[in-house]
């Protein structure tokens, strides 16, 4: 009788254990209420800390969330009416410095002189303050006439004809003392003199991804696209250095970064083609530092999205060595999925690689113009 009772007791315990909530089965570390910023262009919020769990919401880049728990690289967050779990590596926890309000823009060092100026770039970003870290308030087109109100180093405080004020780079404004200003077309220095390091991913014995339909090797696509990009940039006056010059070379990740830093690159572009077990398509642009890399990533992604034809999956935070350890502005671009038959059929062609190279070159030109 005692043995029977023991078995019954054991069965009851097992049943109770199976009915416990999910969070009891997985160790969860309580966290102090911490604020964090979303670093992905679109971050899924899930019902449980698992990629298999149901998606209950989505957060855009820059959204500030509150973290209440952490478990195995996942963070339980809340934002407005949304509560759930997100991949922790897409969050940047706030520091005291980040949670304080930014100081107001420094006052200009020159009073309004009545001078006018004309925008000489195709698209010039007007910002709240004199610096690339300041919020963009408007994008000014070529030929826009501005009232110059003041100056701080290489920045001008300006006012538009509609009364909106902000700061722009003085490099891309032609100043005139007369109210009649003739737009100067094609005078933006753009890529001329810029040092660009292009990194064709993989190489040598490391072929990278392999296409499922045509068995296309990623390392060769990376190299072919990089050479096309190098040619386009050199035609526009840039100084271009490649981290490898043939399919047989296989520099280490540290060596690739060393080239970027030794050359004091104005931009580092790592070229890749993607793979996935899911039927994913399109391009993806990665950055690591939101201050050093994000502006470059924005411009490159815009070039790919507007000119390439394949769908863009936007911007994403990427904890990659060539980005994380790189002191220079750097991005890593994935230019299509070799594991998707339709993508592979397109990206293996020379015409697509030409378009991709042109889109990246245009994105770089836009980045340096602003």
TrEMBL record:
One of the record's GO cellular component terms: outer membrane-bounded periplasmic space
Any GO molecular function: N-acetylmuramoyl-L-alanine amidase activity
Pfam families: Amidase_3 (PF01520), SH3_3 (PF08239)
Residues annotated as domain SH3b: 33-95, 114-177
UniProt superkingdom: Bacteria
Residue runs in coiled coils: none
PROSITE patterns according to UniProt: SH3B
Assigned keywords, A-Z: Cell wall biogenesis/degradation, Hydrolase
Organism: Brevibacillus reuszeri
SUPFAM superfamilies (UniProt xref): Zn-dependent exopeptidases (SSF53187)
An individual GO BP term: peptidoglycan catabolic process
SMART domains according to UniProt: Ami_3 (SM00646), SH3b (SM00287)
Name of the protein: N-acetylmuramoyl-L-alanine amidase
Region (Disordered): 96-117
Gene3D superfamilies, sorted: SH3 Domains, Zn-dependent exopeptidases
InterPro entries, per database record: MurNAc-LAA_cat, N-acetylmuramoyl-L-ala_amidase, N-acetylmuramoyl_amidase_3, SH3-like_bac-type
């Amino acid at each position: 009788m005692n043995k029977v009772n023991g078995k019954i007791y054991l069965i009851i315990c097992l049943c109770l254990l199976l009915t416990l909530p999910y969070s009891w089965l997985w160790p969860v570390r309580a966290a102090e209420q911490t604020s964090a910023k979303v670093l992905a262009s679109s971050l899924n919020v899930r019902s449980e800390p698992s990629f298999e769990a149901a998606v209950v919401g989505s957060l855009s880049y820059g959204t500030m969330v509150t973290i209440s728990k952490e478990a195995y690289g996942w963070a339980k967050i809340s934002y407005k009416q949304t509560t759930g779990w997100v991949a922790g590596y897409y969050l940047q926890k706030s520091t005291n410095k980040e949670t304080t309000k930014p100081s107001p823009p420094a006052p200009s060092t020159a009073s309004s002189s009545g001078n006018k100026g004309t925008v000489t770039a195709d698209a010039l970003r007007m910002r709240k303050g004199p610096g690339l870290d300041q919020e963009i308030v408007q994008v000014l087109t070529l030929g826009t006439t501005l009232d110059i109100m003041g100056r701080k180093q290489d920045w001008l405080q300006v006012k538009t004809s509609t009364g909106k004020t902000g700061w722009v780079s003085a490099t891309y404004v032609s100043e005139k003392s007369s109210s009649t200003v003739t737009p100067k077309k094609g005078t933006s220095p753009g890529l001329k003199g810029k040092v660009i390091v292009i990194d064709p991913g993989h190489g040598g014995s490391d072929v990278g991804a392999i296409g499922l339909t045509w068995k296309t090797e990623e390392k060769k696509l990376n190299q072919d696209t990089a050479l096309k990009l190098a040619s386009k940039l050199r035609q526009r006056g840039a100084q271009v250095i490649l981290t490898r010059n043939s399919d047989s070379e296989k520099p280490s990740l540290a060596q690739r970064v060393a080239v970027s830093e030794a050359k004091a690159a104005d931009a580092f572009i790592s070229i890749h083609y993607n793979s996935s077990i899911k039927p994913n398509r399109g391009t993806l642009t990665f950055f690591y530092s939101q201050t050093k890399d994000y502006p470059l990533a924005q411009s490159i992604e815009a070039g790919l999205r507007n000119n390439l034809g394949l769908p863009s999956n936007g911007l994403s935070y990427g904890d990659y060595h060539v980005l994380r350890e790189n002191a220079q502005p750097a991005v890593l671009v994935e230019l299509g999925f070799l594991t998707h038959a339709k993508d592979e059929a397109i990206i293996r062609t020379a015409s697509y690689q030409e378009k991709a190279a042109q889109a990246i070159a245009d994105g770089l030109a836009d980045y340096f113009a602003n």
